[in-house]
Amino acid sequence: MNNEDKYLKAIRILKGHRPVLTNKEKLTDDIMKRIGDSSEKSSLLEKSVNHLFRWVDIYWLRGAMAVAAAFFAGLFIIQQLVITNRLNNLEDQLVKTINTINGHDPDPGMMQRVFMNMIMTEEDSIKVSKSDLEALLNSYLEMQKKYEVDRLNIVPEKYMRYRIRKNPKESTNDDES
Amino acid sequence: MNDEEESKDIVQESFISVWNKIGKFNIGGNFSNWLYRIIVNKCYDSLRRKKRVTMIYPDDNNWVLPYLLSDNNPETEINNEETGKIIQLLTNRLSAKQKVVFILSELEGLSHDDISEITGMAKTTVKSNLNHARRNIGKKITKYT
After folding, report:
1. Are residue B85 and residue B113 in the same domain, yes or no?
2. What residues in B contact A13, CB-CB < 8 Å?
3. Residue B14: is it exposed, middle or buried by C-beta count within 10 angstroms (0-12/13-18/19+)?
4. C-alpha span between B1 and A170 (Å, rounded)
5. Is the separation of the CB atoms in B28 and A46 below 8 Å?
6. Domain count along chain B
7. Which pLDDT does position A28 carry in this prediction?
8. B78 → closest Cβ in A1, A4, A13
9. Which chain B residue is nearest to residue A5, measuring alpha carbons?
């Protein structure tokens, strides 16, 4: 008998001798018992879920809950918009403050507040009228503008003097031409 | 599974799954293949659990094969235990997939299409696993007879 025959014989014998289930009744009983237990468990779960969500069946309550949900969703959106708007304002104010501190494009209202903070302390406070403060601010701003103009005028003059010192001939030629 | 008690547990769990999932069964489908699929999956689960403990391949049943395949004993009568031992001896070095394919094809007589549907393997994979299993079992038979 070659290997192929032996293999086929072994398979034939195994196929011809299917395992016989011993104690079939016990296995059936066990299965039925476990199925009973599992269906009991699932029915308990089902009961508790039904009990918890029984209110869903009440039509008006369901409608009211839907309306409430929509209201809260709307409220949430509005709240988000308001918060965003406030943040934008705050950012604008911050930019203005920084500009004021750096001296670019000063905002008189902001300057006024900064001045007030600078000149007033808790221990030693003074009273300044709003008109005086505005006059002071205006004169300060005017002075700053004047300073800027003067600065621009002074620089070319200095430059010219420097060039004349360095090369007097060239500057004379320039003048002649 | 190489363990009668575990096999009985798998049978129980399989029937409970059938009971719980019968609603999901497609009426036009093949019930037998569906049942086989549940059982095969339960066997895989059990093997996975078993793998975590220890896998023992007892090789002490090699007396069964010569006795079974001897020429002077054509009307061999074997009992459950011996059948189990022979299957165990022949398949103990096979992978789980090869074992499933071998049992479904050679012992249960299912077609490659059915095995493919039950195990979820491609037909070519089924064929290659079966060839590998046959070669391995052929070697075993040569070794022990």
Report:
1. yes
2. 68, 76, 78, 86
3. buried
4. 110
5. no
6. 2
7. 87
8. A13
9. B69
Query: Residue B109: CA atoms inside 13 Å, Cβ hemisphere, count?
Result: 6
Contact state of A7 with B134 under an 8 Å Cβ cutoff: yes
Q: CB-based contact (8 Å) between A11 and chain B?
A: yes
Which range of residues forms the domain containing residue B98?
A: 60-145
Claim to verify: residue B136 and residue B86 sit in the same structural domain:
yes
In whole angstroms, what separates CA B35 from the centre of its chain?
15
Nearest beta carbon to residue A7 from set B77, B84, B137:
B137
Out of B37, B53, B69, pick the residue that ends a domain. Answer: B53
Query: Could B16 and A38 be called an inter-chain contact, meaning their C-beta atoms sit closer than 8 Å?
Result: yes
Distance from CA of A71 to the nearest CA of B (A): 40
For the ranges A139-143, A159-163, B46-50, the maximum mean pLDDT occurs at A139-143
Judgement on whether residues B132 and B75 belong to the same structural domain of the protein:
yes
Contact A34 B65 (CB under 8 A): no
d(CA B42, CA B11): 9
Task: Kindly report the CATH number assigned to the domain that includes residue B3.
Answer: 1.10.1740.10
Q: CB–CB of B16 and A31 under 8 A?
A: yes
Cα dihedral: B68, B136, B116, A9 (round 10): -20
Q: Is the pLDDT of residue A141 over 90?
A: no
pTM: 0.52
Could you count the other beta carbons within 10 Å of the beta carbon of residue B83?
20
For residues B119 and B74, membership in a common domain is answered with yes
**What average pLDDT values come out for chain B (145 residues) when binned by 10 residues?**
80 87 83 91 85 55 64 63 77 85 89 91 92 87 74
The reply to whether residue B141 touches residue A10, judged by beta carbons under 8 angstroms, is yes
Report yes or no: A34 at the B interface, CB cutoff 8 Å: yes
